[in-house]
Amino acid sequence: MKFQFWTVGKNHEPFVKDGIQLFTKRISNYYPVEWNILPTPKNAGSLSEMDLKKKEGEMLTGFLQKEDYLVLLEETGKQMSSEDLALFIQQRANESVKNVVFLIGGAFGVSDTIKKRANYQWCLSKLVFPHQLVRLILAEQVYRACSINRNEKYHHS
Questions:
Q1: Residue 51's domain spans which residues?
Q2: In terms of C-beta distances under 8 Å and separation of at least 24 residues, what long-range contacts does 50-59 make, across chains too?
Q3: For residue 123, is it within any domain?
Q4: Fewer CB in 10 Å around end: N or C, the chain?
Q5: Looking at the domain assignment, is residue 37 inside a domain?
Q6: Is residue 84 one of the residues assigned to a domain?
């Protein structure tokens, strides 16, 4: 199984880059992992919120493969504990899922097309975080889940 972290927007800001790299490297001890930072569409500033989400959705649909298991980070999604995430990841591995894509949408979220395509919608928190911090939290939580599955000391419950 491979993890892909997709995000729409700018490159990692320096204040989160080191942490993202650290946890991404740690995840790679368990599963292959990569980040794909997808640029916002051209003329994004002149598009309506709906048109921007539609354009981003078309771009994302073009990159997704039919067999990809899409986990959409979505404020209306289901919340999980770290242990729940560990179980979720183990279940995907047991199902022989080849590629799990964790998607952080653009500034206004994602189109309905992407929401419908998602295999799972996950809400990290009821709090609102900047997208840059969501990247770091996502990488750390996936690493934590992997360490839980291996019964390692990182997660102290």
A1: 2-149
A2: 52/106, 52/108, 53/105, 53/106, 53/108, 53/109, 53/110, 53/111, 54/111, 54/113, 56/8, 56/105, 56/106, 56/110, 56/111, 56/114, 57/110, 57/111, 57/112, 57/113, 57/114
A3: yes
A4: C
A5: yes
A6: yes
Q: What is the CATH number of the domain that holds 129?
A: 3.40.1280.10
The token duo for 45 is 């500033």
The answer to whether the CB of 148 falls within 8 A of the CB of 86 is: yes
Q: What is the pTM of this model?
A: 0.95
Summarize pLDDT for 58-114 with one digit per residue, the tens.
999 999 999 999 999 999 999 999 999 999 999 999 999 999 999 999 989 999 999
What number of residues does the chain have?
157
Q: CA-to-CA distance for 16 and 137, rounded, in angstroms?
A: 10
Instruction: Tell me the per-residue pLDDT of 9-63, one tens digit each, with 9 for 90 and over.
Output: 999 999 999 999 999 999 999 999 999 999 888 887 788 889 889 999 999 999 9
Domain count, the chain: 1
Both tokens assigned to 145: 């889940």
Asked whether 110 and 60 are in contact (CB, 8 A), the reply is: yes
Q: Which residue has the tokens 């996936």?
A: 142
Amino acid (one-letter) located at 15: F
